[in-house]
Structure formats: structure tokens, C-alpha cells
Amino acid sequence: MNIRLKSIEKHIVKKHGRARSLTPAEQDVLTFWLEILMAAIRNAWPVETGTSRDRWNAHAIPAFGDLGIVIENPMYYAEFVHRKGESGELWRSLVPNSWNAIKVLALAALRKKIDETEEKIAQIRQRTGRTLREVTLDFLRGVDLV
Q1: According to the model, what pLDDT value does residue 144 have?
Q2: What's this model's pTM, rounded to 2 decimal places?
Q3: Quick one: DSSP state of residue 109?
Q4: Closest CA relative to residue 128, chosen from 113, 143, 116
Q5: What DSSP string describes 44-107?
Q6: Is the Cβ–Cβ distance between 22 and 62 less than 8 Å?
Q7: Taking each helix axis from N to C terminus, what angle separates 91-128 and 24-44, rounded to the nearest 10 degrees?
Q8: Are 107 and 29 in contact (CB under 8 A)?
Q9: Partner residues linked to 61 by β-bridges
Q10: How remote is the C-alpha of 57 from its chain's centroid?
């Protein structure tokens, strides 16, 4: 399941003045929340052998224009897993419900980190006279100059 983070892209443009990808520090914030998401999904997943539960994974796509997360379970039978006595594909409700349970907090934390990054960029530009592009590229490389 792919989830686009369009509101985060809009926030970046509003704060940065133009498009940019997530910095490594911002990616770390998103990864933290994806770990919480994976724990929620795994904890709610029915277990017979544990194989399909353990195959859940998520990763971030930090590139502007595609900014989002991918949640998947490559186990061939995962799409057919359901709770005992129920029918239907559990993942179709479990994944979106789990994301919706943390989405507000995760996106708020990511917006806060973006704001912190933009404040640092502004401070460095003012202190050094470097261009927005130069300072942004350093941040995207993971170089924190403050």
C-alpha cells in the first residue's frame, strides 16, 4: 500500500519556498513513526506460524513529488489472512486503520522537524551568506552546519 504525504510536500514548499526532498534528519523522524506503525500492524496480525506477521515492512520515499510511505507484506498468502471466524482480507482494513491511528502525531512530528531544518537553513544563510541551494544541498547530504 502506497500512502502519499501531499500535506508534507505542501508544508515544505510553504516553509522552504520551493520543492525539496526530506533531509536525513527528517527521514529519521518518519522512520521512527514507521517503526511504530509496523509494531501496531504486527501486534494486530493473526498468528499461526508468525511467518506472514514477521514479513510486514514499511519504508519512506523521501523524494519530493513522490514523498510518501510504502507498506507491504511480500508473503505470498498475506493478502488472504483473516481472523478466525471472519472473512475478507484483513490487511485492507488493518493497514489504513493503523496508519490513521498514528497519522496526526507522525505528520505533526515531521512538520516540526521540517520547521527546525528551515530555521537552521535560515540561520546558516544569514551567518555565511551562502545561497539557499548550497545550504539545502548540505542538509540533504546530512551535513548539519549549525
Answers
A1: 65
A2: 0.89
A3: H
A4: 143
A5: HS--SSSHHHHT-EEEEE-STTT-EEEEE---TTGGG---TT--S-THHHHHHHHHHHHHHHHH
A6: yes
A7: 160
A8: no
A9: 68
A10: 12
Q: At which residue does the C-alpha cell 546558516 appear?
A: 124
Average pLDDT per run of 10 along the chain, which is 146 residues long?
97 96 95 97 89 94 96 90 85 95 98 96 91 88 70
Nearest to 69 by CA among 81, 61, 77, 78: 61
| Grid cell of 121 as nine digits | 537553513
Domain ranges of the chain: 2-140
What is the model's pLDDT at position 146?
56
CB 131 within 8 A of CB 122: no
Q: Count of residues for the chain? A: 146
CB neighbours of residue 46 within 10 Å: 13
Grid cell at residue 68: 510518501
CB distance 38 to 140 below 8 Å? no
Residues 6+ apart with CB under 8 A from 89: 79, 80, 81, 82
